[in-house]
């Protein structure tokens, strides 16, 4: 098959809570988030790494790697993603998918085909600010549809928001919580200005942990430092 990766990590302890994983980065993305720190993958134009080659390299590591995280970029823009995940599944790996939620039909297909074990969806901000945060003229109804799909997964999904100054504030977080419901796993991630896609966002200072915790005391905080 022609499915290729932009790059990959053989070992990660932070990309799937409770699991040691390999991380596969798919090239390209349909968003242009100004705060994106992974834009080298978004704009990747190389030949890529064949999926089969990477899976062959991982074959001898099943005793200590628990699964594979598929991230990007945005994996769901690739029509042959189901075929790629099926290949990974046949090798005996469990799979976590990271997505921006812009392709609910693909998410539904993957779930119905039992090709994913866990899905993490980035919810960029509240609906009224979404186009600004995504950097493209996204149909926000697609985002809301993806949220509804993931809400049916009974604990096999999480929603994540990077709390970027000027794009996300307390009211945005509270509005997102209303959309995803009180019991959904919700992760608030610290904004990292270094290497942001837009030079403007490289100059911003992240929110502090105490402030963000007050926005949603049930949320999991990730990437914050005490006193920041």
Overview of the structural elements:
The protein has 228 residues and is of the alpha/beta class. The protein has one domain (4-222): TIM Barrel. Helices cover 31% and strands 20% of the residues. It contains nine helices and ten strands. Helix 4 (104-112) links the parallel strand 6 (94-99) and strand 7. Helix 4 (104-112) packs parallel to helix 6 (140-151). The longest helix has 12 residues, at 140-151. The radius of gyration is 17 Å and the shape is globular. It starts with a strand and ends in a 6-residue tail after the last strand.
Summary tags:
8-stranded mixed β-sheet; 9 helices; 228 residues; single chain; alpha/beta; TIM Barrel; 31% helix; 10 strands; two-stranded antiparallel ribbon; globular
Short description:
The chain has nine helices and ten strands.
Rough outline:
globular
Runs in which pLDDT lies below 50 for 5 or more consecutive residues are: none
| Protein structure class | alpha/beta
- Proportion of strand residues: 15-25%
CATH class: Alpha Beta
Largest beta sheet, briefly? 8 strands, mixed
**Number of discrete domains:** 1
Q: What CATH architecture would you give? A: Alpha-Beta Barrel
Radius of gyration, whole Å: 17 Å
Question: What is the number of helices?
Answer: 9
Query: What's the arrangement of strands in the largest beta sheet?
Result: 2-3-5-6-7-8-9-10
How would you spell out the order of helices and strands? EEEHEHEHEHEHHEHEHHE
Helix coverage percent? 25-40%
The separation of the N and C termini measures: 46 Å
Assign the CATH topology: TIM Barrel
Indicate the mean pLDDT.
Answer: 94
CATH superfamily: Aldolase class I
State the total count of DSSP E strands. Answer: 10
């Amino acid at each position: 098959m022609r499915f290729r990766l932009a790059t990959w990590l053989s070992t990660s302890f932070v990309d799937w809570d409770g699991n040691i994983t390999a991380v596969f980065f798919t090239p390209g993305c349909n968003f242009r988030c100004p705060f994106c720190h992974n834009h080298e993958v978004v704009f990747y134009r190389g030949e890529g790494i064949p999926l089969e080659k990477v899976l062959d390299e991982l074959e001898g590591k099943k005793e200590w790697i628990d699964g594979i995280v598929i991230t990007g970029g945005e994996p769901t823009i690739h029509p042959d993603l189901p075929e790629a995940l099926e290949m990974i599944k046949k090798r005996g790996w469990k799979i976590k998918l990271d997505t921006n939620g812009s392709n609910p039909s693909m998410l539904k297909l993957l779930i119905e085909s039992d090709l994913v074990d866990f899905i993490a969806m980035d919810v960029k901000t509240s609906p009224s600010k979404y186009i600004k945060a995504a950097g493209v003229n996204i149909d926000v109804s697609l985002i809301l549809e993806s949220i509804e799909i993931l809400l049916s997964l009974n604990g096999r999904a999480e929603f994540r928001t990077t709390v970027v100054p000027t794009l996300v504030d307390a009211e945005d977080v509270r509005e997102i919580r209303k959309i995803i419901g009180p019991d959904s796993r919700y992760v608030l991630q610290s904004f990292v200005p270094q290497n942001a896609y837009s030079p403007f966002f490289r100059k911003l200072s992240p929110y502090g942990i105490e402030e963000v915790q007050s926005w949603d005391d049930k949320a999991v905080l990730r990437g914050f430092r005490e006193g920041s």
